[in-house]
Automatic annotation (TrEMBL):
<keyword id="KW-0547">Nucleotide-binding</keyword>
<keyword id="KW-0808">Transferase</keyword>
<dbReference type="InterPro" id="IPR003846">
    <property type="entry name" value="SelO"/>
</dbReference>
<comment type="similarity">
    <text>Belongs to the SELO family.</text>
</comment>
<dbReference type="GO" id="GO:0005524">
    <property type="term" value="F:ATP binding"/>
</dbReference>
<keyword id="KW-0067">ATP-binding</keyword>
<protein>
    <recommendedName>
        <fullName>Selenoprotein O</fullName>
    </recommendedName>
</protein>
<keyword id="KW-0548">Nucleotidyltransferase</keyword>
<dbReference type="Pfam" id="PF02696">
    <property type="entry name" value="SelO"/>
</dbReference>
<dbReference type="GO" id="GO:0016779">
    <property type="term" value="F:nucleotidyltransferase activity"/>
</dbReference>
<keyword id="KW-0460">Magnesium</keyword>
<keyword id="KW-0479">Metal-binding</keyword>
<dbReference type="GO" id="GO:0046872">
    <property type="term" value="F:metal ion binding"/>
</dbReference>
Amino acid sequence: RTRSIGFPFCCLIRRLQFPRLLLLGVTCHAVVCSLWRPGLEGSASLLHLYSNKSNSEQGYCEREVRLASSLDFWTLSSENLIGILWPSLAILLTSGYVSPAPVLPIDPVKENYVRKVKNCVFSIAFPTPFKSRVHLVAVSKQVLEDILDLDLSVSETDDFIQLVSGEKIVLGSIPLAHRYGGHQFGIWADQLGDGRAHLIGIYMNRQGEKWELQLKGSGKTPYSRNGDGRAVLRSSVREFLCSEAMHYLRIPTSRAASLVVSDDAVWRDQFYNGNAVKERGAVVLRVAKSWFRIGSLEILAHYGELDLLRMLLDFIIQEHFPSVDVNEPNRYLDFFSTVVSETAQLIALWMSVGFAHGVCNTDNFSLLSITIDYGPFGFMEAYNPDFVPNTSDDERRYKIGNQANIGMFNLNKLLQALNPLLDPRQKQLAAQILEGYPILYDTRFRELFKAKLGLLGKSKGDDDLIAFLLHLMEKTEADFTMTFRQLSEITQSQLQELSIPQQFWALKMISKHKLFPAWVSQYLLRLKSNMNDSDFERRKRMTNVNPRYVLKNWMAESAGQKAERNDFSEVHLLQQVLRRPFQKHSAAETAGYSSPTPSWAKDL
């Protein structure tokens, strides 16, 4: 349906005869390249013609707010990134009905082989289909419905399986691999890039939000270096579950729409001890507002591609930083200030749930300050500031207690990449912005941990109270998650009497320390200073910020082991539990998701 927008425009739309659906096999490269992909934003019903405005903002078309029951009219676009349109749409551009999208240069070499790439942001690279049958392991109903406007039933179709496994691509998309560099473990690693990921397009949903869809584990690209371009089921289960778990913990993150597995053999040396074993290849469909990271800018600055650096920065600011005026001479300072502030916020949030990313290289740090690239991450069990989930991190560089410092290091590398575009005065101001990072981090860390303890207002002893508790937790090796959760559930009278019920096992561990009574006295005294508060309200607040469930490594491993046998029930059970991490789940709620019930789920 169209409004009365002028006869010529309506006729053009009808005469173009957009296809109902065209899923092209990735083996048909010649056909795809000759079409050059339509540059239309994705839509669950009508096609969008403006790359930077939502359907409601345009005022040209209207549609019912409903979910698509098939992929027939569901489209993706690459136009917003690389500016390629159907040749048949050129008339619309020249007639003034469509504004050309910003253009980021593409690698002129179209062949897919590993090489050094220069003077571009993306390379065209098509996914490599699996040779064996593909099985759907899991989908995120919330991502499908709330972000991609797809009804859950679509995930049961062959078209969906072919799309999310990389076997076929949607018309409107040119699969891309992103070129970036980065500092890995503190050392410049030169060109890195998407070595096993393909950005298959951008989707604009019914809220006018644009989301970039990326397949991970979908085959080789020009940036694969010595890799095979694949991901295995074990690590893919972890990424699928953790990215969704982090979202429900209210931590900015990429999302996971689906997980599929094949019977293709992929060899991996999991423990880096020279003993590679055969595993199953898998693909995760990840979505994020943007996949640009610090390394996206570093590679351009390193090779002196300053015009391209400026172009990419302006694109990122215009698309993703609405508070920054892209025409402002100090826009790069404003951009940097925002990234510094939001990075401090993100890492403080990680710390508040005991999350260690594991590989905090600059190529894994998002410019949008969201959590991306879930690899050897881990949620801390016993509180230990030296906790390292990554077995290859021999120097413990990325231990959980060092994440804030690594944030400072990475932001400094970002500043170095920006420096060629700054004048002397701006460089001085940018250095001052970076110097303010520790204060931003400490402030947010304090706010989060005060909330975890149910503290209201300010007191000069708050930092000492928090540090005192963490010291006791470290000495007694108390569980990080459950200590704060049980403090949320125990009453003040129970604490006052030091009578810790058996059900609060984490607190009982801490209570064995000789200084625990002293901490309890300080804590209860501080709670009395909460204005207009009650013990009921305190516990209510605290249970809303202290999760009962996080994705412990052994939970993910258990689910992954079952998935290897094509038993995906435990993955589904974890999805159910981690969607509501702050609530206690009843056995009835989780019945039927896994049989027999895994050991970790018996106390739900």
